[in-house]
């Protein structure tokens, strides 16, 4: 199958978001002496993943997610904090972290003959600086963000609006690549475009959300397109 148009998710698809988050967490100074051990960072990742999934399912808003996740995290350790202030400092550090997952840049460098777009539910405030920090900006024709489009993955209107915005008239030309079954793959499936589930941890898919393809290494995208 030939796919001339590629949609890439960013967090945990191209960006090593967990590593970026760990480094940003350990730079937070509003909670003096809190160590952010590896175990605590793992708990943060689980909590954050759960909240982002709730956001994708429209159970919470972005504002609720960002303003409360630090309160929920520190409540687990019996520490009272101002969640908004913690989030602000975390984001300040996170935008300067541009660690990538294996073969992310190598893959993008090999896609010059395709139309490549970043499609994300993430915030422009965070994603734009990170793309620049990682040196990825030149490889994308466009950055298409939920906050600009007015819809978010997995809403089919997110993809429909993108098609109209960039002048695509055929769904079978598009391939969506992402790590999230509930946002990237579900959204692609509902809209009727093919998808690649990037699953480097070899997780079991216990849902009824079925990707067109599944890969463990990003460079394997080249074998599909």
UniProtKB/TrEMBL annotation:
Transmembrane regions listed in the UniProt entry: none
GO MF assignments: 5'-nucleotidase activity
Pfam families referenced in this protein's UniProt entry, alphabetically: Hydrolase
Family annotation (NCBIfam families): HAD-SF-IA-v1 (TIGR01549), HAD-SF-IA-v3 (TIGR01509), YjjG_YfnB (TIGR02254)
Protein name per the record: Noncanonical pyrimidine nucleotidase, YjjG family
Species whose genome carries this gene: Companilactobacillus nuruki
């Amino acid at each position: 199958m030939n796919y001339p148009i590629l949609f890439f998710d960013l967090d945990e698809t191209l960006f090593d978001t967990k590593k970026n988050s760990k480094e940003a967490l350990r730079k937070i100074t509003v909670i003096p002496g809190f160590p952010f051990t590896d175990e605590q960072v793992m708990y943060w990742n689980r909590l954050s993943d759960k909240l982002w999934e709730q956001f994708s399912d429209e159970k919470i808003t972005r504002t609720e997610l960002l303003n409360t996740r630090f309160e929920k995290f520190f409540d687990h350790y019996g520490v009272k904090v101002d969640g908004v202030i913690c989030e602000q400092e975390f984001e300040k550090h996170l935008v300067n972290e541009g660690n990538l997952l294996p073969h992310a840049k190598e893959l993008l460098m090999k896609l010059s003959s395709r139309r490549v777009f970043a499609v994300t539910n993430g915030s422009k405030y965070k994603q734009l600086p990170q793309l620049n920090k990682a040196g990825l900006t030149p490889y994308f024709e466009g950055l298409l963000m939920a906050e600009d489009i007015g819809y978010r993955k997995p809403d089919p209107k997110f993809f429909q609006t993108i098609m109209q915005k960039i002048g695509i008239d055929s769904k079978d030309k598009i391939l969506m690549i992402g790590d999230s079954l509930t946002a990237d793959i579900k959204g692609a499936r509902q809209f009727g475009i093919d998808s690649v589930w990037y699953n480097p941890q070899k997780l079991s898919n216990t849902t009824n959300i079925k990707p067109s393809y599944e890969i463990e290494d990003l460079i394997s995208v080249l074998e599909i397109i």
